[in-house]
Amino acid sequence: MKRTSVAVLLLAAGCAVGPDYERPKTEAPAAWGEKADTATADLSTWWALFGDDELNRLVDRAVKSNHDLRIAVGRVNEARAQMGIVFAAALPEIDAGGSVTRARQSPNALQFGVPDLYTTHYKAGFDASWELDLWGAVQRGYEAATADYESWIENRRAVLVTLLGEVARNYVGLRGNQLLIDVLRRNAASARDTVEITRARLAAGVATTLDVSRAEALLASAEAAIPQVEAALKQTIHRLSVLLGLAPEALTAELAATRPIPGAPPRVVVGLPSELLLRRPDVRQAERRLAAATAAIGIATADLYPRISLTGAFGLDSLSSGDFLKWESRAWSLGPSIRWPIFAGGRIRSQIAVQDAQQEQALAFYEKSVLNALEDVENALVAYLREGDRLRRLEEAVAANRKSVELADDLYRKGLTSFIDVLDAQRAAYINEAERARSQADVTLNLVALYKALGGGWESREP
Q1: Helix intervals (H) in 302-346
Q2: Nearest Cα to 160, choosing from 446, 461, 463, 454?
Q3: For the chain, which domains are there?
Q4: How much is the pTM?
Q5: Would you call 235 helix, strand, or coil by DSSP?
Q6: Which of 77, 138, 313, 460: disulfide with 44, CB 3.0–4.6 Å?
Q7: How far, in Å, CA of 284 to CA of 350, rounded?
């Protein structure tokens, strides 16, 4: 803070050319397209709303060791150091130097006599220069560097938001796949029982070979669905491990035990669209990049005007070591210098045009970021709400199919229907059971996507 205050005082002396930055005015919708709770949302620790201790621990570990986050922090540090370099341009530059030179002269190159062929030259002193920031080039440079630094802070926050969402998404995917595997294995066990019963009925003469073949086909189909989900489960563990900065297999034993899918909290608050634009790090980053691009116009414009520098030098200069430290050995110079590019072949104005175009791009990118943020929330909100509706219908379908299987089996045992009706009822029940398990995971996954789209989480994880 002290260095920033000093910089403001130093840079305020000049007249900064180029446009002064004004934050763009963005109109946000008054409400979301879907019905949602628009109370002010506290999303600083949104993952804790699921009430899953294992998820909370994974988030804490990921924040401490994730490599993408470490890279983002490094970029913040780099931008901070770059800001220091720009700040230094506002201050005088002082160099100290010294030399001792031993030389031999050629007597054949001298016209008058033959002096000492060997001489020693002693020299030491200070050189100083200070370019006056009359047109605000340094000031604009500091503004651009500061905005760039702040944009990298927002980039770190955006990386953090993505990381939190990825950890939660993969964790929910892990638990969802565990549930789905359990459902598929129970379906396969039920199909296996059907095969055994059908074989027994064939042996008793009350079933046909065709009935057994159809039952065996249903069993094979039920068992074939399991390996693909098992592979997906392993992949989510690998992804979680890498997100935590570990080897892919590191969390296999730790996450092997089956646990329920984290359930949605009783109240999901999303806030107003206007709050979203103030919270989303990617929107904030785009706004800071626009500020940096605006300041860059002033830097380029300053090249149209003369540059005035104050230069000076003071030191000691002597051919004798005995006289070197005497006051008579002093040498100094002082005076201003000016440099004004009278003709540069249109280079300077072309550079200004380049910066103008880049500022226009930055503005368009900011406006696009705003729309993308609104779209992300709208899409996540509608997906979450509609998947909830779908899950309720699947619950009804599962209950109806279970009853259908019981009725079909009872009718078949009484000889009132064919075995194909039993298999069709079982197949429909298996499909609905699996779809319900997937939908249970999708509801929570869509809620995670909604929280991620809302841009929360970085507030509680500031370095």
Answers
A1: none
A2: 461
A3: 2-93+135-305+350-461 (1.20.1600.10)
A4: 0.85
A5: helix
A6: 460
A7: 30
